[in-house]
Amino acid sequence: MNLRQQTILQQVNDRKRVSVSELSQTTQVSEVTIRQDLNLLEKRGFLKRVHGSAVALESDDIDVRMMRYFSMKQKLANHAASLVNDGETIFIESGSSNALLAHQLAKRPAITLVTVSGYIARQLKNSACEVILLGGIYQKKSDSMVGPLTQLCLRHVNFSKAFIGIDGYQMDCGFTGRDMLRADVINSVLAKGAENIILADASKFGQVHQNLLATDSVISRVITDNRLPACYQQQLTAQGIQVDILGE
């Protein structure tokens, strides 16, 4: 995927639907070239073509999700990395923001990363830091390890901080996830009593999914961006959760 196609995908994922003419103006290439790019991106499963436009897909593919609000997720990841001290062992759950965090921490050899994400482990194969990939059932759609074996592995590793991705947050039900097996793994991580940190862009707040994550009382901090509605920030703060909000 070239830089222009990455720009197209980010535009589509950010705005949900973008016309060919708008993409042509943004990238300063012809509409014929844009249509060729869109055909390629659709063939690879990154978006959907409709008449005169491109539409974003809901996807578990990290590469696709990473392109949505990419610059903001990079800022969230940089801030999260600043909270990690040399010598620490930390857990990083799967997800696009966490993958960017892992890239930042990979430059520091004095850190050990524990993860269930096959994607993150592969991205860090040439990194300076130590990487521990937990075993389990390989869930192909999310490129993550899940199931009872993963939860058993978690009992035998310790870490001081855990960075967790979420799919939704609502005032009446708290943090939620789309996938039951991944939610079970997250809950096992949260139960270990480390400093649990939610790393998620503000688009996740206001959404709700069927799988409840552990109660808000086990969450120490939320790192998100300044699109977070004030009501959510107030509720989280009232529950004793530190909320770090980053601007553009």
Q: Which band does the percent of strand residues land in?
A: 15-25%
Query: Segments where pLDDT lies below 50 for 5+ residues?
Result: none
Specify the number of helices. 10
The average pLDDT is: 89
Give the overall shape, derived from the CA principal axes.
globular
SS content category: alpha/beta
What is the CA-based Rg, rounded?
Answer: 19 Å
How many DSSP-defined strands?
15
Distance between the termini: 26 Å
Task: Please provide a written account of the structure.
With 248 residues, the protein is α/β, with parallel strands linked by helices. Helix content is 38%, strand content 24%. The chain contains 10 helices and 15 strands. It has helices at residues 3-15, 20-27, 31-43, 62-66, 70-82, 96-105, 118-123, 148-154, 180-190, 230-238, and strands at residues 17-19, 47-50, 53-56, 89-92, 112-115, 130-133, 137-139, 144-146, 161-164, 168-170, 174-177, 195-199, 211-212, 219-225, 242-246. The chain has a 7-stranded parallel sheet, sandwiched between helices. A 3-stranded antiparallel sheet has the order 1-3-2. Helix 2 crosses helix 3. The protein starts with a helix and ends with a strand. The relative contact order is 0.11. The model has no long low-confidence stretch (mean pLDDT 89). GO terms for molecular function: DNA binding; DNA-binding transcription factor activity. Residues 1-56 form the HTH deoR-type domain. It holds the Pfam family DeoRC. It comes from Yersinia rochesterensis.
In short:
This protein has 248 residues and is α/β, with parallel strands linked by helices. The chain is 38% helix and 24% strand.
